Amino acid sequence: MEDAVLSRYAIAFRDSAVAVAVIDSASRNLLYSNDAFLLFFKSLQIVAGRNVFAEVAALSNAMDNATVAGMMVAYDCPHTNARYEFSPLLQAGAPATWLHCMVTPLAGPLLDLTGQASSDAPAEVLLNEGYRRILDNFPHNVWLCTVKGELFWTNRTSNLFTYGQPEFHDADNTRYIAKIHPDDLTGAGVALAKAMSLGRMDTPHRYRLRDHGGIYHWFQFSMAPVRDALGATLYWVGTSINIQAFHDAEMGANARIEQLRQRSIAHEQRALESQRLQAQQHKMELVSHLAGGVAHDLNNLLHVMGINIELMQAQPQQPALLPYLRVLDGCLKKAGRLSTQLAGFSGRLPQNAVALEPQALVDDIHDLLAKAVGAEVSFQLQMEPGLQPLFADKSYLENALINLAINARDAMAGRGSMALRVAPRSRQDQNGHLAEYVMFEVEDSGAGMAPELQARVFDPFFSTKGSGKGSGLGLTMVKTFVENSGGHVSIESTPGVGTRVAMYLPVSVVPVDDAMEVNAAIVMGSGRILLVEDDDSVRDAMNRILNQLGYDTIPSFSSDHAVTLLQGGMKPDLIISDIRMPGRLNVHDLIAAVEAGSRTPIIFATGYSADVVIREGLVNDRYPVLFKPFSAAEISARIQSALGGHAQAANAEAPAAAPQAG
User: Fold this and answer.
1) pLDDT digits (tens, 9 = 90+) for 167-201
2) Are 492 and 499 within 8 A, CB to CB?
3) Could you tell me the sign of the dihedral formed by the alpha carbons of 504, 505, 509, 512, in that order?
4) Cα–Cα dist 299/98, whole Å
5) Distance, CA of 549 to CA of 551 (rounded, Å)
6) Structure pTM?
7) Buried-state track 543-576, b at ≥16 Cβ within 10 A, e below 16
8) Element (DSSP H or E) covering residue 637
9) Which of 407, 398, 400, 397 shows the shortest CA–CA distance to 334?
């Protein structure tokens, strides 16, 4: 109904030479104005620097009197040399606060509503009209706003760009907000508020503004206060300059720089990416009947026990308990290794290569190999003399041996004989030079393979097993691991006789003891860590060990809770989070919240197997993943790596004794 009233007014007075408007006496906002009134009102704004209907007391009183009395009230305004007649709008559908306003000139000089000042007008009027004409035709957007930040005038250039018409009046003073890009609105508001607070704007601010055709352009705005004779701010004047061409050139230059940088390392990246993507596809089928959830819960329990053992070992008042704690710690490490082997592997390239004693390695994994091949397979171990330490990732090597053992068992249909032979060997390396290796050879008495099958066994997804009995990635994983460890892999097979698969891993040039000490140190640190973990016992244990390492923790029990904290303004130095937790949001929502805000570093800690991590899409190396159980030394090293120089500087300022890992 109200829109219909204004529509009838627009039709009736649109082409009238008399300045006519509809004003809401409650808000002092213009609800409708014809062209004659709009031109007068715009001239009045730039000369007076304010909305006279809201701020000139006499005019405001006249509007109130007309509303209360319900009759026409006139006021001759000497400031604008014009007569204002306010009459209540009695049309059906019009609110009681709406007034019909008509403006007519008084005797003497008045701002010419046609845009030309009278030839006999005073010099001040002519000067103001000249200023208005200059600002209207200025090649950049010019605008005025009140000390409260209300935009009350824009020049012709701005109106043509933003609204496609030379004159435009925003009755609610809000339509311009929709023209600013949503992503830039907060920054523009902060820049405006900061300038008004300081009384000046030191640095121009960039933002995107939408033109009347709906296309966004990059602008840069500056603003300055207009003061009276006493120094008080009357209003602010601002300019917005279209810098789209400069922005495009800047983006083009940055893109070219990035292109050149990428090109310089393209060959290396292609090689590494190819290896990484291949390794990501690999997963093992160690024990198919063991559910991932069981491994997850077991890892959580082992993790909590391991942390508590480390905390107890750090207490000097209980020396009598240390031997028992060392026994428990050793058992936990073996249980953790078994859980890791059962749960799977991450698919990343070997990253934790150390010097390993072959005998100790085989002793640790012997029982698991025997269980993998089954009770009806005769398992033999042959260790030749002269073995030297080898250099490899222990977890990957153990997984590769178990994989070969399972393949041998399947090739024999669960019955036959299998031998693991560990021996020193000399052979040519990748450069054709003679080098020393430790050979791990698995031989079975299975059905064997024809030559054409042997040529394909290392291809991804190729399998000689029946449907549903293998992924075809096991031997691919073995080959990838061995070659990325600087070694070789070979296969020999005879149909009806059996198969031999041999891994040749390089001899270590680093002593075993020295290699073990590299990862033993625990570095104290400082900072605020948001700890996201739904399991109460794990969260409490992690909280205690992080506190002991020198960090302040903010516990959180779900991704929903963590995202709410981050979106509410919390700014931790680091986030340590589980991967799967109950709630509406998941780990990808947490990542999105972080990357949309402060880009806080994240370390994921999980009790799930690595194949779950792959399915969650967390194998792109943007964020490190720790698999439970892990020690204080491991989490300390990962935190130091994530926090980088900041954490190291904090450690240098406040050194403290670290707990000793068991």
Assistant:
1) 776 656 677 788 999 999 999 999 999 999 999 99
2) yes
3) negative
4) 73
5) 6
6) 0.36
7) bebbebbbbebebbbbbbbbbebbeeebebbbbb
8) helix 632-643
9) 398
